[in-house]
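Hey,
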Amino acid sequence: MSKIYPLIICGGNGTRLWPISRTQSPKQFQKVGGPESNTFFQAAVLRHKEDGFADPVIITSVRHRKTIHEQLDEIGVNAQVILEPMGRNTGPAVLAAAMMLQEQDPEAVVLVVPADHVIRGDLNTTIRAMLPAAEDGYIITYGIKPRFAETGFGYIVDDGPIVAHQGLRLVERFVEKPPARKARQLVESDIAYWASGISMFSVKTILEEYSKFEPETVDAVRKSYEKAEKRDEGLLLNAICFSQAANNPTESAVFEKTDRISLAPLDVDWSDVGSWSAMYGISDTDHQGNVLQGDVIAVETSNSMVRSFGRLVTLVGMKDVIVIDTPDALLVTQVGHCQSVKKVAEFLKEEKRLEAEQHVGKEQEDGLVRMVSSDKVDLSQTKLMPAQTLNVTGSATREMIVVRGAVTAGEGDNAKLVKEGERLSLANVTKLANKTGKPVEILFLNVVAPAAVADDKVLTLKNYA
C-alpha cells in the first residue's frame, strides 16, 4: 500500500489575526493558545504523525526558512522543505512537491494540509480509508458538514455515492464564498459541505490532470524544480522559471475541471480561524466565559478574550471584548467587529508602517532587529556572539556602526577590523564575523536617496533569496 505524504503549505499572511500575525511572521507560526501551546504549523505537522504517514513535506516562502526549521526542531520532526522564491498560490506549490516525491516514490500519495487551521477529532481514520480511492486515480476533497451559513468559506455540493469506494461521494459543483442568501440555501439543502482545504491524490494523478488543464504551468514548475538550488534549509526553486507559473489555486486549476474529483465527508470540529472571534470560539473558557492567556487579570468581565505577550493586562467591567497586547501593538475590539481587523492591517500597509510587516524590536529572519523602517530610512541592530558570522546586504547607501566590541568586515585580503565607535560603508561588504571572545553590538543605517530606492530593493531581494 502507498505511503501518505502530508504536504504542509505555509502560505498567506493572515491579516485578520493582526497584531500577532504580520506579513513576515504570519498566522501559521503563531501559538494556537497560551505560551506553552504549539503553533498552528506545529499542530498541523503533529496531526499526521501516525502509522501510514511518511515524514511531511513543507513548502514555504524562502523568508520563513529559519522559522520552519526552528519550529520543526522544537517538536522533533524531520521533514523535507521546499522554498518558494515568491508566492504563486497553492497550485504551483503542489506541483513542485509532486515532482519531488515522484522521483523518490512513484507510488506516493499526497495529503495537502493547510498550516493554519484547527482540527479536533479523528481525522486520520477517514483519510486512511480513502487511500485505495487515491490509488485508483481519484482526487479526494474533504468536506465539513456546515454548522451555519458562512459566506467566507467555499462549499462542495454532494452528487451521490461512488459505489466502488464506501464513504466516497461524487461532486456536483464547487461554490466559492457565496452571498448570505445562497449560503443559507446550501446549508438548508443538507447536501453541501464546507471545503476544508484538505485534499488527497497520487502524484501520478495530479501531474496527469494538471498537464491537461495548465501545461504551461507544469512546464514552468518543472524547469524551476530541475534548476532548483539545494541548500541546508531546503530546496530553493528557481525564481525566474517559477515566476512564469500561473498564480492559481489547485481548486480552480484542476479540481473544478477534472472528472476525477470526489468528496469525503469528515466528522471533526474544524475552523480556519479566520478572525479573533473564531480564535475565541476554539479556545477553552473559564466559568465566566473568558479566555485569558498570559499575565492577565479580569474583574467583573465576561465572554471576553485577552492575550498578553509580556506585560500585565487588566480588564474591569468588560463584556464581549477581545484584547491582544503584543510588545509593539495593542488591539482592542468587540467580538462582533473582528472581521474588520484586516482593515487595520491594510491601513498600516498603505501607510508603510513597519507594524504591518513585522514585529518591531523582534529579531527577523535575516538576524536583525528592525528599529525604524521606511522607503528611505532603515535602522536596525544585531548582536554577534563570539565566532558567530552574519551575511549582510551590501549597498552604497548602507553603513554600520560598531556600538560595542570589534567585528571583522569582509573576507580575505579585503577584511577589515572595525572597532567600537567606528563606522564603515557596506558597499563592498557581504560578511561580518566576530573573531573576538566577547559579544559585538552593531547598528545598521540605510538612508536611500529617492533615485536609488528601486535599485536598492532589487539588490535586497536578490541577496535575500
